[in-house]
Design goal:
Elements (H helix, E strand, L loop, with lengths): L21 H15 L12 H10 L2 H4 L4 H18 L7 H15 L10 H14 L11 H19 L3 H17 L5 H12 L24 H12 L1 H20 L9 H17 L8 H7 L5 H16 L8 H4 L1 H9 L6 H9 L1 H7 L2 H14 L5 H13 L2 H8 L8 H4 L5 H23 L3 H7 L2 H6 L7 H15 L7 H16 L3 H32 L7 H19 L7 H14 L2 H11 L5 H18 L4 H11 L9 H10 L5 H14 L8 H11 L3 H6 L1 H17 L8 H13 L2 H11 L5 H13 L9 H14 L1 H20 L23 H19 L5 H20 L12 H19 L2 H4 L4 H8 L7 H16 L8 H4 L8 H20 L7 H11 L8 H18 L5 H12 L1 E3 L7 H21 L17 E3 L3 H9 L7 H4 L55 H4 L22 H10 L3 H13 L1
Antiparallel strand pairs: 1-2
Organism: Saitoella complicata (strain BCRC 22490 / CBS 7301 / JCM 7358 / NBRC 10748 / NRRL Y-17804)
GO biological process, one term: DNA repair
Pfam families: PDS5
Length: 1246
């Protein structure tokens, strides 16, 4: 059935030289177009005369070549309709079709001008060609390739310059895709045009510093031309694979093979590889045969080409592509080859490989991410510094989602703890910053107690603050920055923000162990207090100097002093080689003479400034420096940040008090500890908040039950208030409520509560009245069997120390009661062997044992409180107390007449007696009373069978020596720990000794070396000493331990001299010749010689003459005796062979402190497990937790703290330059609460 015939019958072409008027022609073409547009192929009569005439006239040159744009535009539309209706057989010859499509191409250029009146017709033509697919007829034309090329060029130029509508863009893309799909061959120029669209992304300065990356023009990155090219590549990947590969193969070959003196054209290769990457993003499969080319480049000899290949494949591996699969799955061989480059011989390539991994970890599968993370662990120990920096930086580039889903395990990043101790500053610095970022990202999870969050970042704070003990001034500067930027960032100063920041600080502290908290407070309060003093002095001098405008003699003195203070400040921020710049910057600041800046700095350091004031002043002074002295801004920011009260200030006290009351999130006990710490370091902060502490004290004192329930929290609060009261007694609030509460604690609270409350009462204006009331209340009603005996005894002990002038009258009565009714009597029923353990923790210590310990302290405090009296009278009064302490130590704590004191009581008494001896030794009148024999007995506590006794005694000893409270002779005791079986304690002591030895070397003092002769004398009097070879090997370990920790090439001659001098003297502590001294002298000389030879040290004869301690040594009877002793050898035969293993050179290893994660804070604390020492063979067996072996004989028990004789004790090397300030701060803040309080008392005495 014939279809619908065309109704149009008007003339379009001119006849007999008579052209159709333009207006009529346009009208007729519009009419024709309107009739053709709705016609369908199935309902169209192709044989009608009208359609044949129209077909002929439309293809005439008169219309196609008409000068009017409108005529041409409508003619093109009508021709497109004709091709649509006649499809698939066009009603034109091949030549006519060629002319028509050339005409179409020209008309489509009109799409560039969207303001043209004929733009709609151009768009219709484009739509028609795309929809009907008649454009594919071009592929059959003789000049089809040229037409295809023209269309590609026109379309992409148009898309790149005129931003066509999305529909036009879509049709152009569709047309070009059809041409590629239907073409039998694809012109090379067409490939160039297509790939050229990706080149638009590469900016003119595309070569980056790494010679492997290019920079992108972000404005062109989303251009329609690029979108079209990506769509075409994706749609025609199979058709274009061969052509794309051929293109890149030629470029890479031609570029790589043009090597001259300068090598290949790297810039051209960079562009080519960038182009490959961009194409990969659009269509990974189109590079099926191109990726192997990159794979081959990975193994070429040229480093630049290898680097390009690594960068390109690495970026491809991390990219999110249209396929969504990723390089590891699409090109497994190339992926495997790329992974192999992590071990490339070029550090530059290893660095580039490392820097490319973040995107891979984030965007690829879990298996791929883990594979890369494992390799990154290797890169963090790479031999090249930059590679290690990059491997650490990578972790900081990951967001929390990636960390929690891809890393998801501490094991994959925990090695960052080691890198923060790297030998290179750049690695340490970057690692510190990364750790800060990790905590900042993970904190919300930690706050919610997320198991994964705590697993991933809970260890981070400990790893960061453990570095403080390394004494790395530059790393400490970075830690300062990280504290304020990541750990405890601050923005506004409103109450809500302050509360959130306080909570963040508490969670941070909750994830630190004791040593970590010590380091935290050292950085936040210790260094702040120190630097505020230095900076305050610097500001005072600067104001007087007045910028140096008046060059008078006084001005020169001020300038000299300024430079001295600047040098002290610089020492805390830069290594010696770089301090000059810091000092110069500080002097420039002083010359600037900014009075307003000085005022702002004082505000930053003022404890009475709230956070808003500190923050405002801090920002103000930095802004002024940035404007006027930008060159010194970095230096001054370091100094000002450390000196400012940005973290701890009076604004945080209310929030801390709230946490102690509500115990929100289980952080109450941490908040109490913070309040206590602030009271120690910055008690002035409490001035504005003292009523908050008073309220807490009064609340806690309401009932005995409340005192016991909130025992530790109340103790911390009282401790904090005590510190404030001692510093600012005039600020103590006057009121009956506070006084009654403190008195209640003195007689009803716990031992420590009573102690702190007594101290506070003695700080008030009515000190004498309170002291007398307490004395009458306690002594008049003191009964061992009554309730409240322990707190009363604790208060009495404190009274005897701090108010001896009031307690002296009743001191004798108290002393008699304590000795006869407390110390010499044991009321506890005898225990079975299983029950009689050697140590009981504080939490479960019974009242009788507490009373015995307090009794000893009270008697000691009686003497300490009277130390300012006449020397002879004081010493006479102290003699019975010395005798008592010596008896406790000598009898292993058993001083009861019945001999039934439990083992746990004995251990406690030994410890308190030994620590009390150290307290006496810190006071000159009492130190003189410690004779050498008493000293030797005290020293043996360092080898006590009970670990807690050894640990407590040594901790107290090291504190006193670090603070220079104890005489140098007490250093000899710490070397008896050579056989210490507890590794943690041994390593701690070893590091401490090295630090102190380094300190004395820096001071160029030989005082410390005198400890060697004192140690030899101590060993000669050791109860285990014999001339047996086995025992001498044991004693050789003491000497080797001393040399391992103290000896260096510069002092080995001194030590050898001292070893020889011992053999030239007699023992001053005995009347007869003590051959033990000569044996130990020969043994020491032998070990020193072997040590010197093993290390290759040069040991010249010591040129000087040094005296020997007169309390230990005296001259030999005569020269004949001296000569005989000098000629004799007191060592067994072949002794050298027995001790060779002790003098081997041990390769130094930097000690690595493993991070520990504190448990999530709980409202209750658990009792730590008991620790006990191991025993040497043939010595008493190791004491178990619930057994009571027969007390060992004197000659045996001293070995119970030593390792088996067969064990070769080796010691890890540790930094000898540990910060002395940090050491002292750490020692002062370690140990039990009781020990801390005692240290404060000693400070007060001093």
């Amino acid at each position: 059935m014939p279809g619908t015939a065309l109704k149009f019958n008007a003339q379009l072409a001119p006849k007999a030289g008579k052209p159709v008027p333009l207006a009529d022609l346009l009208k007729r073409l519009k009419q024709l177009h309107a009739e053709l547009t709705p016609m369908e192929q199935d309902d169209f009569d192709r044989s009608s005369s009208s359609i044949k005439r129209v077909v002929t006239e439309l293809a005439s040159s008169n219309l196609i070549g008409h000068k009017d744009k409108g005529v041409r535009a409508y003619t093109a539309c009508c021709l497109a309709d004709i091709l649509r209706l006649f499809a698939p057989d066009a009603p034109y010859t091949q030549k006519e079709l060629q002319t028509i499509f050339e005409f179409f191409v020209k008309q489509l250029k009109g799409l560039e001008n969207q303001e043209s009146p004929w733009w709609g017709q151009y768009a219709y033509l484009l739509d028609n060609l795309s929809t009907v697919k008649s454009v594919v007829l071009i592929t059959d034309l003789p000049n089809g390739e040229d037409l295809m090329t023209d269309l590609f060029r026109y379309f992409f130029d148009m898309a790149a310059t005129s931003s066509p509508p999305r529909q036009v863009e879509f049709h152009m893309t569709d047309i070009l895709t059809q041409l590629i799909d239907e073409s039998t061959s694809i012109p090379t120029e067409l490939i160039d045009i297509l790939l050229g669209q990706f080149m638009r992304q590469v900016s003119s300065n595309g070569t980056s510093a790494t010679r492997g990356q290019t920079t992108l023009d972000k404005n062109l990155a989303s251009a329609p031309a690029l979108a079209m090219a990506k769509s075409i590549l994706a749609a025609c990947a199979d058709r274009l694979q061969r052509h794309i590969t051929q293109y890149f193969a030629e470029v890479i070959y031609n570029t790589s093979s043009t090597e001259g003196e300068e090598g290949p054209d790297i810039d051209e290769l960079i562009t080519t590889h960038q182009l490959i990457y961009q194409i990969y993003l659009a269509s990974p499969t189109v590079l099926l045969n191109t990726v192997p080319l990159l794979e081959q480049e990975l193994v070429v000899e040229n480093t630049d080409i290898r680097l390009l290949a690594v960068n390109t494949l690495g970026r491809m591996a991390g990219a999110n592509t249209a396929s969504g699969q990723g390089l590891p799955r699409e090109y497994p061989n190339a992926w495997k080859a790329w992974l192999g480059r992590e071990n490339d011989k070029s550090a530059q390539i290893r660095q580039a490989w490392t820097e490319l991994t973040p995107a891979i970890i984030a965007n690829r599968t879990q298996d791929v991410s883990r594979q890369v993370l494992e390799l990154l662990k290797k890169k963090r120990v790479d031999m090249d510094e930059k590679v290690r920096v990059a491997a650490c930086h990578v972790i900081g580039e990951l967001d929390w989602k990636t960390l929690s889903t891809r890393v998801a395990s501490k094991a994959l990043i925990a090695d960052l703890n080691e890198r923060v101790r790297d030998r290179k500053l750049s690695v340490r610095t970057e690692t510190m910053r990364v750790l800060g970022k990790l905590w900042a990202m993970g904190y919300p999870e930690v706050e919610q107690r997320s198991t994964l969050g705590i697993e991933l970042v809970g260890w981070v704070p400990q790893a960061m603050f453990a570095t403080v003990f390394l004494n790395d001034v530059e790393l400490n500067v970075v830690l300062d920055q990280v504290i304020h930027s990541d750990l405890l960032p601050a923005s506004s100063g409103d109450d809500k923000e302050i509360e959130a920041r306080v909570k963040r600080m508490l969670w941070l502290l909750a994830n630190l162990d004791d040593k970590g908290r010590t380091a935290f407070w050292f950085m936040v309060l210790g260094k702040q207090g120190q630097m505020s003093k230095f900076l305050g002095a610097f500001i005072d001098l600067s104001e007087k100097w007045n910028g140096g405008v008046n060059p008078t003699d006084e001005s020169k003195v001020l300038e000299t002093n300024l430079k001295k203070v600047a040098a002290v400040i610089a020492k805390d921020f830069a290594v010696e080689a770089e301090r000059e710049k810091v000092e110069a910057d500080l002097i420039r600041f002083a010359r600037f003479n900014d009075r307003r800046g000085y005022k702002s700095l004082r505000t930053c350091m003022d404890p009475q400034s709230d956070f808003k004031a500190v923050r405002s002043a801090y920002k103000s002074v930095l802004a002024r420096l940035k404007e006027s002295l930008a060159s010194i801004l970095d230096t001054m920011k370091m100094v000002i940040t450390r000196a400012s009260l940005l973290v701890v200030n009076k604004s945080i006290i209310p929030s801390l008090v709230d946490f102690t009351r509500v115990d929100s999130s289980g952080l109450g006990h941490v908040a109490h500890a913070v309040l206590k710490q602030i009271s120690t370091a910055q008690p002035a902060i409490y001035k504005a908040n003292v009523q908050s502490l008073v309220a807490l004290i009064e609340e806690a004192a309401t009932t005995v039950e409340r005192m016991e329930r909130d025992e530790r929290a109340t103790e911390d609060t009282l401790k904090a208030f005590k510190q404030f009261a001692r510093q600012y007694p005039a600020e103590i609030p006057k009121g009956r409520g506070l006084t009654d509460s403190l008195r209640a604690f003195c007689v009803k609270g716990t031992s420590r509560q009573a102690k702190h409350a007594t101290s506070i009462l003695l700080c008030t204006e009515r000190r004498e009245m309170h002291a007398q009331w307490l004395l009458d209340e306690i002594v008049g009603k003191l009964d061992v069997d009554m309730a409240g005996f322990v707190p009363k005894l604790s208060s009495l002990s404190q009274l005897m120390l701090e108010a001896s002038e009031i307690t002296n009258d009743k001191a004798d009565v108290v002393t008699e009661l304590l000795i006869k009714q407390v110390l010499l009597v044991t009321r506890k029923e005898p225990l079975s062997d299983e029950e009689d353990v050697d140590w009981v923790e504080d939490e479960v210590l019974d009242t009788e044992c507490q009373a015995k310990v307090l009794a000893v302290k009270a008697l000691v405090n009686r003497a300490r409180g009277s130390v300012e009296g006449e020397r002879e009278a004081v010493q006479e009064m102290a003699k019975p107390i010395f005798k008592m302490l010596g008896a406790i130590v000598g009898k292993m704590g058993e001083i009861s007449k019945q001999g039934s004191t439990p083992q746990s009581y004995q251990s406690r008494l030994r410890l308190v007696a030994a620590q009390s001896m150290l307290k006496f030794a810190a006071l000159k009148p009492f130190e003189e009373m410690i004779a050498p024999n008493d000293f030797n007995k005290l020293a043996l506590i360092a080898q006590d069978p009970c670990f807690q006794v050894r640990n407590g005694f040594l901790g107290k000893l090291m504190k006193g020596l670090t603070a220079v409270k104890l005489p140098v002779r007490f250093y000899s005791i710490v070397f008896l720990t050579a056989h210490e079986p507890e590794e943690e304690l041994r390593e701690k002591i070893t590091g401490w000794i090295k630090s102190r030895a380094a300190f004395y070397r820096q001071q160029k003092s030989v005082d410390f070396l005198y400890t060697f002769v004192r140690l030899l004398h101590l060993l000669a009097h050791h109860p285990d000493f014999t001339n047996e070879t086995e025992d001498l090997v044991d004693f050789a370990k003491y000497i080797a331990y001393y040399l391992d920790t103290v000896a260096v090439s510069d002092n080995v001659a001194h030590l050898f001299y001292f070893a020889q001098r011992v053999k030239q003297t007699a023992d001053a502590t005995t009347d007869s010749i003590n051959e033990n001294l000569f044996v130990i002298s020969d043994l020491a000389a032998l070990i020193i010689k072997m040590k010197q030879e093993a290390h290759g040290w040069s040991m010249q004869t010591f040129p000087g003459k040094l005296g020997m301690p007169l309390d230990l040594f005296k001259a030999l009877p005569d020269s004949r005796t001296a000569a005989e002793i000098a000629r004799a050898s007191y060592l067994p035969a072949r002794m050298e062979e027995q001790v060779t293993h002790l003098t081997r050179v041990r390769h130094a290893k930097r000690k690595v402190v493993k991070p520990t994660v504190a448990k999530t804070p709980q409202s209750k604390t658990s009792t730590p497990k008991k620790r006990s020492s191991t025993s040497k063979e043939k010595k008493p067996a190791k004491k178990k937790a619930k057994t009571t072996p027969t007390p060992p004989a004197s000659s045996e028990r001293r070995r119970s703290g030593r390792l088996p004789a067969s064990t070769d004790v080796r010691y890890q090397e540790e930094s000898e330059n540990e910060d002395e300030d940090m050491k002292m701060y750490a020692e002062e803040n370690e140990g039990s609460e009781e020990e801390e309080d005692e240290e404060e008392e000693e400070s007060d005495d001093a």
